[in-house]
Amino acid sequence: MSQQQLQRIIQMLKAQPIAGPATVQDMRANFEKMAAVFPVAADVKCEPVNAGGVKSEWVTAPGADAGRAVLYLHGGGYVIGSINTHRALAARISTAAKAHVLVIDYRLAPEHPFPAAVEDSVAAYRWMLAQGLKPSRIAVAGDSAGGGLTVATLVAIRDAKLASPSAGVCLSPWIDLEGIGDSMKSKASVDPMVQKEALLEMAKHYLKGQNARSSLAAPLYADLAGLPPLLVQVGTAETLMDDSTRLAERARKAGVKVTLEPWENMIHVFQVFAPMLDEGQQAIEKIGEFVRANAA
Known about the structure:
By secondary structure, the protein is α/β, with parallel strands linked by helices. The chain has nine helices and eight strands. The chain has helices at about 5-15, 25-35, 85-95, 115-130, 145-160, 185, 195-205, 240-255, 280-295; strands at about 45-50, 55-60, 70-75, 100-105, 140-145, 165-170, 230-235, 260-265. The protein has an eight-stranded mixed sheet, sandwiched between helices. Strand 5, helix 5 and strand 6 form a beta-alpha-beta unit. Helix 2 packs parallel to helix 3 (about 85-95) and helix 3 crosses helix 9. The radius of gyration is 17 Å and the shape is globular. The model has no long low-confidence stretch (mean pLDDT about 95).
């Protein structure tokens, strides 16, 4: 690892924070601005589609297997984020997994609180099945809130008695909307992105007075039995680290096959910074291997 690479990213984040005391509109604009730094390669095909009523986009890198797909759920605390903010990451995952990646613009809070995001992700999955894709060749993936939404989506798919996807990939997942994990305090001094106050504010927008321990809002409390294999990647320098470790522990106890990858000194969703961080690309290669192995 180049410590210089990581420090440059941390300085950038501190200089232009995404979340914080700003308005929702400001946070959304800040996220879009940051993401614009990472362009998508010219040979990546980006095709807008309506996925069961959900604005979405197929992101396909050269060499993608026509039958392998990833449903990608972006992060942003259920309040910010879009296809735009995650297109570059989706393109890299498409390359590594040799898969078509469907990035969806699920409805955001506070305009559309829980369970709107879950409803949209399941609708998009139903649409993928209707397109003739085999569930055994589909993986569901997401980062941060999208990582929690990945778990919630897999639970909702199971409960709806739909055919299960082949795998789930969670990057720094947010599964505890109350921020009660020990790392929320113990890692606060080293995390340049996620702090409890801003996190709870986003949870407030998403829940709109609903139960913070509802299993599809906070999958920490969900019954995980019967879920497909999970890959969980997390940095050791992030306040949400315990969300990942608790998810892995609960999933294993439920009989789910889990691969937990703690990345030393890495920050929240470090994979996004792959264009300027070696570990980010290395982690994406691991995601690709996992998806190819399970969605063969």
